[in-house]
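Private note to self, pasted from the team thread so I don't lose it. Backbone tokens:
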């Protein structure tokens, strides 16, 4: 873990890609950058900015996560969330609680990158404990 976590602090560039649940958006990518800082004991925190792509969130996100062996896990939180309505338009997400967006992945030492999949959990309705899970893939590469 020491070798991999030593790479975590710094600037990362990457993308996320929408999964099959997104219908016509399947495979569409949103580019983003992360500025991360190792906080000790395999943990890190930072900020994220999305640059371009369908459904990009214009507000910065906060990142909190950890590295365990070759694996990375982090949560991305936005001040405001957006979702797609039935017509495919972006609308502000107003339901509570806020969606939980989790990234899981593995380290690739050949290009100092992480890649994996993400999950977005949203309630099916305001009075239910049931959630709907949206998925996709992602990759980030350390900027040299």
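Design output:
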């Amino acid at each position: 873990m020491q070798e991999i976590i030593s790479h975590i602090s710094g600037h990362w560039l990457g993308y996320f890609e929408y999964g099959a649940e997104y219908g016509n958006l399947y495979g569409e990518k949103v580019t983003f950058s992360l500025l991360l800082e190792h906080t000790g004991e395999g943990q890190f925190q930072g900020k994220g900015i999305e640059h371009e792509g369908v459904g990009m969130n214009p507000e910065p996100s906060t990142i909190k996560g950890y590295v365990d062996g070759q694996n990375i896990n982090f949560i991305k939180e936005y001040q405001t969330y957006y979702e797609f309505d039935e017509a495919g338009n972006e609308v502000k997400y107003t339901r509570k609680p806020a969606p939980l967006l989790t990234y899981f992945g593995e380290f690739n030492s050949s290009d100092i990158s992480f890649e994996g999949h993400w999950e977005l959990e949203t309630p099916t309705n305001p009075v239910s404990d049931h959630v709907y899970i949206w998925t996709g893939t992602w990759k980030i590469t350390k900027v040299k």
